[in-house]
Design a protein that fits this description.
177 residues; Alpha-Beta Plaits
């Protein structure tokens, strides 16, 4: 068993390095999409450093060890998954919820959202069945679960869509003075 320990450590290193590398890759791409260039550059530096170390470990001794390839591929797949979980937990940036409430719920929804500190803009639109009020709520992504929970509490079958918002200026947000 002791003879296999270096090999097992090698597999674990490759797997762990790829998980870290790919998790950082997901975060870096999202930082780029949100216009955070310096964060993306810094994360990219760390990401590539880890990638080179992992790839060096895989290529040392040739490509005859299937365990290294499996560890590399497994780390890649797991890293993508972990990266998305991390990004959802960080919830960096803003989103806009477009809300299409039933007529009888419009004022209650506007009041409830505003009472929680959310800015709400209402516009009149035309849907399949005639005139309709559309609400726009731009918020921090970390506040989105709270807003959606509120919407669904008032109107359980409410229709809404969420759009990623790259940049904002001004506005009304919970906790903002």
């Amino acid at each position: 068993m002791e003879a296999y320990l270096p090999l097992i450590y090698s597999y674990l290193f490759i797997f762990t390095a790829r998980v870290a590398d790919m998790s950082l890759d997901v975060i870096r791409v999202l930082m780029l999409m949100r216009g955070k260039k310096l964060y993306a550059a810094f994360i990219g530096f760390i990401e590539v450093s880890i990638f080179i170390l992992a790839l060096n470990q895989v290529l040392s001794g040739g490509l005859h060890d299937i365990g290294k390839i499996i560890a590399y591929a497994g780390g890649f797949a797991t890293g993508n998954y972990v990266g998305v979980l991390l990004e959802n937990k960080l919830a960096i940036g803003y989103a806009t919820i477009q809300v299409f409430p039933q007529k009888e719920c419009v004022q209650q929804i506007i009041t409830a959202l505003r009472n929680q500190g959310f800015g709400v803009t209402s516009v009149l639109g035309e849907g399949r069945d005639g005139e309709r009020v559309i609400l726009f709520v731009t918020l921090k992504r970390k506040d989105m679960p709270e807003a959606i929970k509120l919407l669904e509490k008032i109107e359980p079958c409410i229709f809404y869509s969420v759009v990623d918002t790259r940049q904002i200026h001004g506005g009304v947000f919970p906790g903002k003075n």
